[in-house]
């Protein structure tokens, strides 16, 4: 009798046994299918990360070394563009550029001089270093013995515990005056600056000149030595040949970088080593970046496999427990749980609504930060400006860089001080005024003391209003757009003449004003106003005080 009851109970519950066995089989089948895919995806992600890291390091190297080379280019430009000036006037300008070079913490010595039939003069930045003065004078004599109309020396000098990158430029003018300028870059001081400035993971960077002499290495003892072992598998000529040769120097041809596997003496590990060239002045540098790829890939793969296994196992155990417990639940418990589920769904829906609104605000901010239309117009303006006014184009590039640095920097919240927002607006207006010439006029008036500049307003609020004025109004020489930004005690008032465009922008969705309205609503401030009065568009931005 008991046996019959057991059989009946077994048959009644055997469907749950079948479901459990099926779930176990699906669990192991899924693990077997997903694990290889995880490994493949992980490898692709690591490779993509390495390529991005490599290009980032190359750009950093090119920027920093071009900064160090910019002073010799400045000397050259002064000499070649001062043909109508007297020798002393040119010398004074060169001395000013020499002082500018010496303001760089990694430039240790500098000199400027000239020679002609009636006079000879050389000024050294460090007059107490007699050995340096003798060395430079000997170098100048050697150059004079093999003299050319124009000569540029860029070499590495290693003396005792010092390593220098010496740059010398000589030029003979039509009046037979020979100008000689140059300076020494302390590569060990540059190593300290570079190591402190650019910390981070993802491989280490080595830089050599086109002769294979090290000028940057994580281990400073290698600086100034020839890194022969780095070019055993891939020669220097092969690295240079992978680039385009133009006028005697090499520039990257945007193809894939050369790479090889090697054993790093610095790390003591097998690494994947990438070789590339970057352009610095009229020379090229070889950039070598080493990544411990296998260790990095194995660690990430093992971590992902372990996390996936634990998550899958816990999900499986949780499901089985729910399946076992649910079979013995009472009807009352079922309805209680149903009520709880309904409450949870309500909370989830409420939370999703909040997240959607928050995401919309963040999306609006991101769209404003990375405005491709603004960047496109700026680059077009810069393209025209480079030929018309090179000096102003340099200012334009610096302002554009400051604008995007401000836009992309990380910050908590969406508020900013009035002072910072006005400073950013001045940089932004500088770019726009160059684009529209005299057709755009923006003035900023502070009717209160400087204490008010510490008040808070929404991030990008002033730029938003100026951009809207430019976007939605006619701007011509006959009818210029005039914008006034007035800083008051309680708020900032922005006023512009209202001459709406006849053809409205179909892509305009008033995202900027919606962003400002939502921000002020969030802080429960209802004094934010916009209106058109007597052909004037007026916007009032109240200050936001955090409680």
UniProtKB/TrEMBL annotation:
Superkingdom of source? Bacteria
Q: Which GO terms describe its cellular component?
A: membrane
Coiled-coil region(s) at which residues?
A: none
Q: Which InterPro entries match?
A: Bact_2-comp_sensor_kinase (IPR050640), Sig_transdc_His_kin_internal (IPR010559)
> Where in this chain does the record put each Signal transduction histidine kinase internal region domain?
362-440
* UniProt keyword Membrane present: yes
Query: In the UniProt record, does the keyword Protein biosynthesis occur?
Result: no
Q: Where are the membrane-spanning stretches?
A: 16-34, 307-325
Sorted UniProt keywords: Kinase, Membrane, Transferase, Transmembrane, Transmembrane helix
GO function terms (MF aspect) = phosphorelay sensor kinase activity
Xref: CDD domains: PDC2_HK_sensor
Question: What Pfam families does the annotation carry?
Answer: His_kinase
Q: Which PANTHER family match?
A: SENSOR HISTIDINE KINASE YPDA (PTHR34220:SF7)
List the protein's name.
Histidine kinase
Task: Identify the species of origin.
Answer: Wenyingzhuangia marina
